[in-house]
Amino acid sequence: MSTKYTSFAVIGAGNVGVPIVQNLLSRGASVVVLTRLGSSTNSKLPSGAKVVAVDSTSAEAYAAAFREHEVQVAISTVGSSATMAQYPMADGAKLAGVELFVASEFGSSTLGATSGHGGAKEAFARHLAEIGLPSVRIFGGALMHYIPGLVELQSGKFRIVGKGETKISFTAIEDIAGFTAHVLTTLPPSELKDAIFRIQGECVTLREVADMYGDTVQVEYVESLSNEFVTMVQRGMNAGAGATGGTSNDLWEGHQWKGIKEVLKIA
Q: What phi and psi, each to the nearest 5 degrees, are found at residue 220?
């Protein structure tokens, strides 16, 4: 067992994956990025990262890549709609002797969820436990960068489902990535095994977010939005699912967490 992790595989090179890779490399870690066969390489990936295309349906293909690059920790950053794609990743990691698997969470807590994307993520967490692969789950609430889409700001209005009075945790993608890299490279493996981390940059209601925009947008209270999935997300937040409590923030000692106005550049 390692005393500190230094070798990582990041699966997925999107909005969350790329900054995680950047943060790991800045901490001196060895990083290989695993992509699907035939997919194009993200031009934002730093030059220090090795990029390897694998058959994303094959546990054996993942296992071969993990072994070749002596991966200790596998980090999945696939989107919520691709949760099922994590099963061959995890099975391959187990075959290759990978020590830790970071599941693609990063948003609101999915603990105890039984349906939808949250239920799929909870089922995958059970799979990791069943195959005996230690895991990490990181919950950051709603991503600050996605607030405009969450309230359909493109319509010219700030649309809130219900009353918008429930506190919600919001975290910047940069902070999620930085925290992930920080704990994975500084905490001993014993403190990472089956760990659950809860972080937040700011905890406010949607009404309070709307107030940040001042008179530049009109607030509209609605029963539903044009996008059914986003409606479901807001309703879940109204029920309290969006608050993490930020109980793990102190693990990143001295870090200044970004706020909503800074991230969205609200004057």
A: -130, 125
**CA 8/CA 206 separation, integer angstroms:** 37
Sign of the Cα pseudo-torsion (104, 241, 151, 119, in order): positive
Put simply, whether the predicted model's pTM sits higher than 0.90 gets the answer yes
Please name the residue ranges forming H helices in the chain: 17-26, 59-68, 86-96, 116-130, 147-150, 173-186, 189-192, 206-212, 228-238, 260-264
The answer for residues whose C-beta is within 8 angstroms of residue 109's C-beta and 6 or more apart is 139, 198, 241, 244
Q: Identify whether the C-beta of residue 176 lies closer than 8 Å to the C-beta of residue 106.
A: yes
**CATH 2.60.40, domain 143-170+201-242+256-264, yes or no:** no
For 147-206, how does the pLDDT look when each residue is reduced to its tens digit (9 = 90+)?
999 999 999 999 999 999 999 999 999 999 999 999 999 999 999 999 999 999 999 999
CATH superfamily of 7-140+171-198: NAD(P)-binding Rossmann-like Domain (3.40.50.720)
Residue in this structure with the two tokens 């700030």, named with its chain if needed: 158
Q: Cα dihedral sign for 174, 176, 181, 183?
A: positive
The token pair at 196 is 């659950």
Residues pairing with 9 in the sheet = 32, 74
Rounded to whole angstroms, the Cα distance separating 90 from 69 reads: 16
Return the ∠ at Cα 7 (arms to 87 and 21), rounded to 5°.
Answer: 75
